[in-house]
Amino acid sequence: MLLHDTALVYGRYLRQSLRSRFALLFGVLTPLLYLLFFGPLLTGLPLGEQGSSWQVLVPGLLLQLGLFGALFAGFTVIMENAQGVVERMRVTPVSRLALLLGRVLRDATVFVFQAVLLVLSAVVMGLRAPLPGILIGFVFVALLTLSLASLSYAIAMKVRTPQEFGPLINAVSMPSMLLSGLMLPMSLAPGWLDVLSHFVPFRYLVDAVRDAYVGQYTSAHMLYGVLVAVGFTGLTVTVGTRVFRTAGA
Amino acid sequence: MAAVISAAGLARTFQTRHGPVEAVRGIDLTVREGEILGFLGPNGAGKTTTLRMLTTLLKPTGGAATVAGHDLAADPAAVRRACGYVAQSGGVDPQITVREELVTQGRMYRLPKAGAVRRTAELARDLGLTELLDRKTAALSGGQRRRLDIAMALTHRPKVLFLDEPTTGLDPGSRADLWDLVRRLRDEYGTTVFLTTHYLDEADALADRLVIVDKGVVAAEGTPSALKLAHGGSIDATLQDTFLAITGRGPAAADPAPVAV
């Protein structure tokens, strides 16, 4: 039943995404601009990491794509709440977990698709990285978007107006991006900033993907990255499902 | 006739920043099978909150209820299978076609794919939507939208249909059509209809029995004529006067002593 319901909800929202092809491509624009106009600035700089500057930057851009994209996913639920679509689904016997999973799996599909476009563009720009590492990077994008989209939907069900939702998400996403070393590695940071960044979960994901991009699949960074990504996903999906079950207060 | 809905002391308190708000303070009511029940009350009386509790959208903070023989708290899944709900806002995506919404709704009620397609055709025929199946829902008129909302709620042939202000915003012709539809559902399928409305002519014309709520409790109940006789002073009283007498929000009685002479 869960599988049937999840597939049903996923299908509905994937068709919705496919109907707006423009939005599907638009999401990749910001990271693409960074790639084109920011990436070349790094090629000659000492970044204190292994591999080329592209192997440092592209993992950061992938997670930036997931971070900004998935955190704003909740906007659609705010619209659907206003249209009554969420309530109409919640009076059917459809599984509450499926109402969330179908949506976030759609989001993961869309962002992994955008991530593939981004990596292909990066290869044209000069990225060279091992294929298993690139694939591992996509898995992290998927986990990150599953967890952040779940969180975003949970927040959207609680705040209910775009006027509250937008600023709240901005307040979360900007510091998260800066403090996790998405643009430049935190190994360049002074001690206090490096310590601070360890309290931001995305830091561990970026470090893991950067290791994957230089072929280090069994490093400590990778272990922490996997643990944080899986743990964070479990936590946020649980919270999200709870909100879909009890929402309406 | 058997009771299809019975509620005792059903209550809901919301916790807000300004302290608790008792939206519904204790509703006792019984709805008999095959009845059209009009659920009336001033704005903020707790109508929608009661409806949302009876349809499992909102957990009661007090009291108990059974719908179609299933306990609201113990078996919400069985309650969902037995009832259909049309919210004030409807609940369809404007970018999706009528056909896709109806088929997906059928699948949400666990019909197999072919069954959902068949049910869509049936509902469309029954509710006059056949010509509109391939239109996006945004392109429907108000009356067509309402018929679609009701078709969505009838997908699984529910025993009880909850309608929250179903004719608000409709033109007189569409309202009359909708009344006919509600009567037909009851006559042909024996569906129990629980509807809230602000239009007293609608309640008078459509409902077998009225329940009037005020400040979160039931203030009066009975057939329209019994209520008119008891509260409006005569069987010929208007439901408007009766309603105002019950909820105490009528125009103030003329002051016997003039303020200034």
UniProtKB/TrEMBL annotation, chain A:
Which keywords appear in this protein's UniProt record, sorted alphabetically? Answer: Antibiotic resistance, Cell membrane, Membrane, Transmembrane, Transmembrane helix, Transport
Q: Which InterPro entries does the annotation name?
A: ABC2_TM, ABC2_TM_bact-type, ABC_2_transport, Nod_factor_ABC_transporter
Where are the bilayer-spanning segments?
Answer: 22-42, 62-83, 104-127, 133-156, 168-193, 222-244
> Which Gene Ontology terms describe the biological processes this protein takes part in?
response to antibiotic
The name on file for this protein is Transport permease protein
Does the keyword Ribonucleoprotein feature in the UniProt annotation?
no
ABC transmembrane type-2 domain boundaries: 22-247
Q: One Pfam family of this protein, by short name? A: ABC2_membrane
Q: What is the native source organism of this protein? A: Streptomyces cellostaticus
Annotated signal peptide: none
Single GO cellular component term: ATP-binding cassette (ABC) transporter complex
Q: Where in the cell is it found?
A: Cell membrane; Membrane
Upper taxonomic classification of the species?
A: Bacteria, Bacillati, Actinomycetota, Actinomycetes, Kitasatosporales
What superkingdom heads the lineage?
Bacteria
Q: How does it sit in the membrane?
A: Multi-pass membrane protein
Q: Which GO terms describe its molecular function?
A: ABC-type transporter activity
In the record, the note on similarity to other proteins reads: Belongs to the ABC-2 integral membrane protein family.
UniProtKB/TrEMBL annotation, chain B:
Q: Which domain of life is it from?
A: Bacteria
Record key words, sorted: ATP-binding, Nucleotide-binding
Tell whether Nucleotide-binding is among the UniProt keywords. yes
Keyword Magnesium, does the record have it? no
> Can you give the residue ranges of the ABC transporter domain?
5-240
GO MF entries: ATP binding; ATP hydrolysis activity
Q: Which protein, by its recorded name, is this?
A: ABC transporter ATP-binding protein
